[in-house]
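Q: What residues go here?
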């Protein structure tokens, strides 16, 4: 039912995919790596420490971690995964993982691993308001606002169609008003063709119908890239995306 609604509302028709095409890729950074921001901490230092690195630029042997890679609005393909969970935890006053993807129909699962009070807000960026409103929502529209008063506190929330990434709404920022340096990002999709690069800069997107697609890549520090790709039946394509500075 969820997949049918997704196809009706946004044009991703769920069909059986046989002998699908696959993408195996690497996202790299070449050049002089920017210095990662050092954040001075002014509260709960016994748990949070006195400073933290922002964790924006994680590069190993030119391989870039935490880049979101996805097919832009595929028209047809296999259905979105069922029962998926976006696991987000608070540990040492950081949000882990820093970058995540989720799927409509799944759920968010939040856990506080610190022995202090934490709060989390999920904010949808509403990019369209910047263009259409004289009073845009500066920090995004809050879709969930939660308090975690003690260690071990867990909260689950549904991932719904309104949360899905598109150019008009944007992605989700995970923030905290009690510890404002805490930051995470979630991209929600109504199709399965998305991934986050691992510590080796690697990603995989599989079981696509043959055809032409627009592949998009986002990174917190380096921004956006796009690649047009053509896939054939049973083909496994190797891709390399390079950010340079």
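A:
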């Amino acid at each position: 039912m969820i997949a049918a609604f997704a196809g009706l509302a946004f044009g991703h028709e769920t069909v059986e995919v046989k002998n699908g095409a696959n993408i195996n890729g690497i996202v790299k950074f070449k050049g002089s790596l920017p210095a990662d921001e050092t954040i001075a901490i002014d509260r709960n230092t016994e748990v949070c420490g006195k400073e933290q690195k922002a964790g924006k630029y994680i590069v190993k042997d030119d391989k870039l971690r935490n880049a979101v890679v996805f097919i832009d609005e595929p028209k047809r393909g296999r259905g979105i995964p069922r029962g998926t969970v976006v696991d987000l935890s608070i540990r040492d006053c950081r949000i882990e993982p820093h970058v995540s993807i989720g799927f409509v129909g799944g759920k968010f699962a939040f856990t506080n691993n610190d022995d202090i009070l934490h709060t989390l807000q999920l904010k949808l960026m509403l990019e369209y308001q910047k263009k259409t409103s004289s009073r845009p929502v500066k920090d995004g529209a809050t879709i969930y606002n939660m308090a975690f008063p003690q260690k071990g506190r867990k909260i689950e929330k549904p991932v719904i169609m309104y949360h899905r990434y598109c150019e008009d709404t944007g992605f989700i920022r995970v923030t905290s008003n009690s510890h404002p340096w805490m930051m995470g990002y979630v991209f929600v999709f109504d199709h399965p063709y998305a991934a986050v690069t691992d510590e080796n800069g690697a990603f995989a997107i599989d079981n696509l119908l043959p055809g032409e697609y627009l592949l998009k890549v986002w990174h917190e520090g380096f921004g956006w890239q796009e690649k047009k790709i053509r896939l054939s039946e049973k083909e496994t394509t190797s891709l390399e995306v390079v950010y340079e500075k």
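A: Context that may help when evaluating the design: Residues 124 and 172 are 5 Å apart (CA to CA). The chain is about 10% helix and 45% strand.
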